[in-house]
Amino acid sequence: MRCNREAIATAKFGVTDSGPTFGCHCGRLLVLMQLGDFQSGYIRPIVLTTIMSQMKTPRAKLDALLALLNSAAQDAIAEYERTGDVPSKESSHPRDSQHPTIALKNALRVLEGACDQLCTTLAPPTHILLSRRYLHYEPACIRFAIKAKVADVLVGQPDGLPVAEIAMKTGIEQGKLARILRFLASKHCFREVRRDVFANSRLSLPLVSSSSLALLFIMSTSLSFGAVSQIHAYLTDPEYGPSLAAEKSAFMYTVRDEGLKDLFDYMKHHPEEEQLFASGMVALSEVTGDSASLTNDFPWDTMAPRSTFCDIGSGVGGICLELAKAHSHLKLTLQDQPHILDKARNLWSRELPEALDEQRVDFVPIDFFKEGPVKDQDIYYMRQIVHDWSDDLVKVILRHIRGSMKPESRLLIHDYILHALHRHEPNGSGEIAAPEPLLPNFGAGNIRPYCQDMNLMMVLNAKERLLDEVKALGTEAGLEFVKVWDLAECGIVEFKVAA
How far apart are CA 168 and CA 69, in angstroms? Predict the structure, then answer.
């Protein structure tokens, strides 16, 4: 089923002249779906209208979920077929090296949300919870596979290798290695092609040790594993549990004997962790497609030559690299701590030296708690900065930015945006709610922002925010909300100077 088509669910499975039909044994159910109505690269809200009297019954809700699942799967298939063939789980696909389009991400969040909600509805609670108690083993085993370079060993071996040979190359005991690979292969990460013979799969190929995803996986799990294991002790500790200070996070609870201030102070005293974190943040923009979304889905071409863009808390400038490559008419400024900008200059001299030669990028140190960014920029931009800090500190940062803005300036806050789990009337902000009967936030189809919220609580005592919370912080800092750009995972909240 293609985007912008109506699907009418009738009493039988099949295909009619008007398009696909879906099973509905409780009576006729009208499902009007508008999936991915795109204008200028952005998604309008997904709309699902139903005969409400029938939607009240559990069976009707299940049939509606089946309709959504079928529709979203067809949209994903259509997006692949738009440029080639559909993928196989056994091997890589040409589009695996590309950032997923908003159309594909939009279809996947409905598909994943509907699948999970169907299973949770139809399975007994004990069935679900007995499986969930072991979920921590999957990331642990993937982390092991990356560090042991299992995927590297299997590159160029489509028929696989005996586990004995893999064990010899990795230095891991053969029997234990086979059990870990069999566990991962049961979730389609690696393949057991014959008894004790394993090969890469589409899901394991990105885990080669040199890949951005592998680097990001190691970085993320290095910070969070220890903190998560201490979550009950941390939350019930009379000193750490009630505190919202960065120095009292769960991560700092696990290293409290080192006498350090917060995560960033910890990294200064552990240079190898700081380097891993910096590289991981660059990898994050590559893997999630944040840089591609910013570069391709914002109307940069409408901006005049030498329009100015200031990346506040830029890190080494991985986001801006893609922007500079695609839009050479922009003048970019990276702002971060001096030692971070030293690394940024080195990166840019390797990756895009012409931007330095043409003076299209500046590197300006900043302490955004004490001072504002460079003045009178057309666009101020922060990616995954606001979520690192408490409300009070975010207001300090935003007030400093407000003081540097000219009347025509815009501030773009690029972050995960949490959605309420109760339904409410659309408010015209551009925020998207999932079609019923999915959870309004797409449930498991949009779980990463909520995982990141937990991660931030563990490592920084920080948080992701609802759109209303971000808007309120901006208002208190003298900014006026303009709109939210929904990018089917992250979002960009746009502000201007309040009148």
Answer: 44
pLDDT digits (tens, 9 = 90+) for 53-89: 456 799 999 999 999 999 999 999 999 999 999 999 9
Distance CA 94, CA 74 (A): 19
Which residue, 43, 37, 30, is CA-closest to 490?
A: 43
Backbone angles phi, psi at 194, to 5 degrees: -145, 175
Among candidate residues 387, 400, 414, 419, the one labeled active-site is 387
Considering the four listed CATH numbers 3.30.300.30, 3.90.1180.10, 3.40.50.150, 3.30.420.40, the one that applies to the domain covering 287-497 is: 3.40.50.150
Q: What are the residue ranges of CATH 3.40.50.150 in the chain?
A: 287-497
- CB burial class (10 A; 0-12, 13-18, 19+) of residue 86? exposed
| Record: fold of 134-207 | Arc Repressor Mutant, subunit A (1.10.10)
Counts of helices then strands in the chain (DSSP H, E): 20, 18
Cα 419 to Cα 8: distance, rounded to the nearest angstrom: 29
Known catalytic residue at 422: no
Secondary element (H or E) of residue 279: helix 271-288
- Residues 420-473 have pLDDT tens digits of 898 877 666 667 889 999 999 999 999 999 999 999 999 999 999 999 999 999
Q: What angle do CA 416, 418, 420 make, to 5 degrees?
A: 165
By the 10 Å C-beta count (0-12 exposed, 13-18 middle, 19+ buried), 215 is classed as: buried
Q: Which residues pair with 414 in a beta bridge?
A: 383, 492
Extract the tokens encoding 68: 């959504």
Helix axes 174-185, 137-148, angle to 10 degrees: 120
Q: Quick one: three-class SS letters along 26-57? A: CCCEEEEEECCCEECCEECCCEEECCHHHHCC
Do 2 and 78 touch, CB atoms closer than 8 A?
yes
What are 256's two structure tokens?
A: 């409290």
Q: How are the residues of the chain apportioned to helix, strand and coil, as percentages rounded to the nearest 5?
A: 50, 15, 35
Q: What are phi and psi of 34, to 5 degrees?
A: -120, 95
Q: Provide the angle, in degrees to the nearest 10, between the axes of the packed helices 290-297 and 271-288.
A: 50
